[in-house]
Amino acid sequence: MMDDALLIEQGRKAFAGPCDFIAAVSQLEGLPPATLPEIAFAGRSNVGKSSLINALTGRKTLARTSDTPGRTQQLNFFDLGGHLFLVDMPGYGYAKVSKAQKNQWNYLIRDYLRGRQTLRCVLLLIDSRHGFKDSDEEIMTMMDECAVSYRIILTKADKANSGEVGPLGDTITQTLKRHPAAFPEPVLTSAHEGVGLAELRALTLSVAKA
């Protein structure tokens, strides 16, 4: 097994290098060529996907952030220095969009998960203040059925009550035992304070290379 410190350093270097926007995809026909392993970021609207991607890459505007749920409406691909593609997926669980738009986004997510052979792992972001919602369980079941590996990433640790994070982690760990495609333990992060970012960079690079 590669030394953890070495992997963290490799992750730091990879994420400190070039990271370029490649494509915004609203239909599968527009996907970029499958030339690199892909790590996708999924989660409910406003869970902090764009903020986490920006924090991991040390940039402020690589992925667009917004207080408006549903801002990310496409699959946004970023080339991380030729190592891998980071994929910012449309948020789910949003309310202020039309039913037709919601269905279109759901179909896009489902078809991407089922058909993309270079997709190595989905990082499923969960707000550490709130835990799982029904829509999270739905996409977890979808990934189980599609045999897509995923890891739970707890976001916004700086905003959570410290006394609640531990019990929530235990609850999530128990829930993950019911989902065969999930890795067994969550990762706690804060894009604002940098909690868990070095470990997440290392994890992302390691999974992409596997």
Give a verbal description of the structure:
- This protein has 210 residues and is of the alpha/beta class.
- It has one domain: 3-Layer(aba) Sandwich (Rossmann fold).
- The protein has helices at residues 4-16, 49-57, 99-115, 134-146, 162-176, 197-209; strands at 19-25, 38-43, 75-80, 84-88, 119-127, 150-155, 187-188.
- Strands 1-3-4-2-5-6-7 form a seven-stranded mixed beta sheet, with helices on both faces.
- α5 links the parallel β6 and β7.
- α1 crosses α6.
- The radius of gyration is 16 Å and the shape is globular.
- It starts with a helix and ends with a helix.
Topology pattern, helix = H, strand = E: HEEHEEHEHEHEH
For the residues shown, what is the average pLDDT? Answer: 88
Gyration radius (Cα, Å) is 16 Å
How many beta strands in the DSSP annotation? 7
Q: Which band does the percent of strand residues land in?
A: 15-25%
* Separation of the first and last Cα atoms: 12 Å
The share of residues in helices is 25-40%
Major beta sheet summary:
7 strands, mixed
Structural class: alpha/beta
What's the arrangement of strands in the largest beta sheet? 1-3-4-2-5-6-7
> What sort of overall outline do the alpha carbons produce when their principal axes are compared?
globular
At the first level of CATH, the class is Alpha Beta
The number of helical segments is: 6
**CATH topology heading:** Rossmann fold
Number of domains: 1
